[in-house]
Structures are given as C-alpha cells and as structure tokens.
Design goal:
Helices cover 8% and strands 47% of the residues. With 125 residues, it is mainly beta. The strands form three sheets. A seven-stranded antiparallel sheet has the order 1-2-3-12-5-9-8. Strands 4-10-7 form a three-stranded antiparallel sheet, with no helix packed on it. Strands 6-11 form a two-stranded antiparallel sheet. Strand 2 and strand 3 form a beta hairpin. The mean pLDDT is 90.
Length: 125
Amino acid sequence: MRSMISELRRDAWRWRRGRQGSGYDKMLLLTARWPLPFDCYLIRYPDGSAIPPHVDPVGKGRHYRLNLILKSPKAGGEFVCAAPLFSSRRIKLFRPDLCEHSVTRVEGGSRYVLSIGWVRGARKH
C-alpha cells in the first residue's frame, strides 16, 4: 500500500512523455495493484504525433484496455487494431498484449483519450 501511495505521489496528475517516443503525453490519474491490477490515464496526442504499430506484453495474465475518445482532431488520430474486442467511434476495447495497435498521425488539433487498463490472472489466488 505504501509503495502504491508513493507511486501516485511521484507520477499522478503530471504530464509525462509516452513510452513510444512519438510525441504523445500521458497523465496517470489512478492505479492499484489489488484486487485487480489496473491503471487509468489521460492521454494527449498533440498535432503531428502518432503511435507506431506495437504490442504491450505483460509478464503474467491477460491485459485489457478500454479507450474512451474524449476529443478527436480535425483529421487523423485514428486508432488502428486488427482485432478489437469492441470498437465504435468513441469506444475501443482491445487486448494490447495480443493485438498489434497504433494511432495514425494527428492533424489539425489534438486528440484526448481516457485509457483504463487492467490485467486479469496476474496474481495467484
């Protein structure tokens, strides 16, 4: 519990560069390791940013991610995933550990996404 609180103090509510090195920023809003490991981020894709195709492996369990598109740019910024579990204009549910995914180049504005991820079966019961 103490490490989770220190992690939140260090990382929460601050814009950080995204892992893909492609110009997007993320802000950790909430995270927990128990009873179900999860995280919740606000992701900002400024004009000109994109995410190349990739997967997000996990050591154990099944990784799920629910992306809610809060604001779309004038063009681009499209989520690309070959096999989403569910996809509509503003809601994307997928397995980032199994399915290659990407975001096309954002043009004419910025894109904002609320992204909630969790891992099932990560802990032994």
